[in-house]
Amino acid sequence: MAIDIKNYRKKVGKRKPNINLVPFIDILFTLLIFLVVTSSFGATSVDDATDSGGTGKPNMTDSSGDQEYYLIPVAGLQKVTVNGVDMSSEISGNAIGVHSKVMDQGDIQIKTQSHEIIIKTPPGMSPQEAVRSPENQ
């Protein structure tokens, strides 16, 4: 008896592959359970967040480094206003240097859509002291 190879190839070519996903899902869940069980999760202290008063500003001790001015870059920065005074002349390379005292005790609003920064300094600080050009630092 002869084997009809052409009909066999047509029959095999029309078959759809039958993929069983159950073993894959079993292995996936086993790995997921293993990772969850062996992971360690650390909780942060809630007391530290409530002690700062909840203002959202960094504490004096939170600043890292000993720089007097910190660079604030904003893409396409066009205007900087300090206590209502236009200090846009201090912009260099889409950035401005802001005094660390302003960052700790003042208020800084960055408006990216209008490409401007609005700064309110702490009492007793002049606008010229609050910001500087990054080139002059």
Describe this structure in words.
- The chain has 137 residues and is α+β, with helices and mostly antiparallel strands.
- The protein has a domain at 67-136.
- Helices cover 31% and strands 20% of the residues.
- It contains 5 helices and 7 strands; from the N terminus they run αααββββαββαβ.
- The chain has helices spanning 5-14, 22-38, 46-51, 100-105, 127-130, and strands at 69-73, 79-82, 85-86, 95-99, 107-111, 116-120, 131-132.
- A 4-stranded mixed β-sheet has the order 3-2-6-5. Strands 1-4-7 form a 3-stranded antiparallel β-sheet.
- β2 (79-82) and β3 form a beta hairpin.
- The longest helix is centred in the N-terminal third of the chain and has 17 residues, at 22-38.
- It is elongated, with a radius of gyration of 31 Å.
- The chain starts with a helix and ends in a 5-residue tail after the last strand.
- The relative contact order is 0.13.
- The model has no long low-confidence stretch (mean pLDDT 80).
Q: Give the mean pLDDT.
A: 80
Radius of gyration (Å): 31 Å
What's the tally of helices? 5
N-to-C CA distance: 95 Å
The strand count comes to: 7
Q: Give the ordered list of helices and strands.
A: HHHEEEEHEEHE
User: Strands of the biggest beta sheet: in what spatial order?
Assistant: 3-2-6-5
Shape designation? elongated
Detail the poorly predicted runs.
none
Structural class: alpha+beta
Strand residue percentage? 15-25%
Largest sheet: 4 strands, mixed
Helix percent reads 25-40%
